[in-house]
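Suppose you are handed only two things: the residues of a chain and a line of SMILES describing adenosine-5'-diphosphate. What would the bound structure be? This form records exactly that question and the answer produced for it, so the two can be stored side by side and reused later without any lookup.

QUESTION INPUTS
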Amino acid sequence: MPSYTVDVEVKSNGRAVTNGSDDSNGSIRLEKSTIGCGSANIVWHKCSVEKIDRQELLQQKGCVIWITGLSGSGKSTVACALTKALHARGKLTYVLDGDNVRHGLNLDLTFKAEDRAENIRRIGEVAKLFADAGLICIASAISPYRKDRDACRSMLPDGDFIEVFMDIPLCVCEARDPKGLYKLARVGKIKGFTGIDDPYEAPLNSEIVLQQEGEVCPPPEAMAEKVISYLEAKGYLQA
Ligand SMILES: Nc1ncnc2c1ncn2[C@@H]1O[C@H](COP(=O)(O)OS(=O)(=O)O)[C@@H](OP(=O)(O)O)[C@H]1O
Ligand SMILES: Nc1ncnc2c1ncn2[C@@H]1O[C@H](COP(=O)(O)OP(=O)(O)O)[C@@H](O)[C@H]1O
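ANSWER OUTPUT
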């Protein structure tokens, strides 16, 4: 685990924070080891209302549907079609879209490898909380590195991380180029663009693969239906 320090400003009426060293200028430096969950002196607090109770209330099972693929492969479109179709069936869902999360929670992150890893780790942690809340959480992010996706998988109980691979060829994504980013990447105006000069590691064993039929891409609703069939077969749409 990377180690770093966090600066905490203490207001004049603020309380001291334990386990940090005071540098006497109003700021305290906390070593990550003192704030991480694996550290000493932090004990998990259990509540009497648990995931199973929330699932009973919602009549569904909490899980994470992780949609990965190149920019322009249709991740956000399928995520929206899926949330809409599940919502219509009375199922509680929430979409965590890479683009959107980078507007807030992950505003501080760039596209260099370690920031992408942190982006995925945070999305994974938030998705895990939503799944624990009993929701069907749909995370859609390029998530180009296998190791980072696998780390998110390992945060969840077996079966609850459902990887959906948008297996759409780069040439199709590039032809779509709805934001004009591939064009900029091709002329070197964006460096480290996934699929152009940054790697995309395709899943080796994803639960669901969504792809073209010949030259034709099925409509997003049909792709969403494939995911719903999987959820149904695995019992996620009932408590
Ligand atoms: N260098 C580079 N590489 C890839 N994508 C880039 C880059 N710079 C900006 N963008 C835009 O950011 C969106 C991807 O954000 P993600 O959080 O999903 O990326 S990642 O999972 O951290 O790799 C992605 O959105 P989508 O097109 O929806 O995938 C792009 O629009
Ligand atoms: N199933 C589909 N068939 C045809 N075009 C699609 C499909 N899904 C998405 N698109 C189009 O592809 C482009 C990229 O979709 P988007 O969902 O934004 O991809 P991503 O989130 O992976 O970047 C958009 O212009 C969208 O309308």
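WHAT STANDS OUT: The radius of gyration is 20 Å. The first helix runs from residue 32 to 35.
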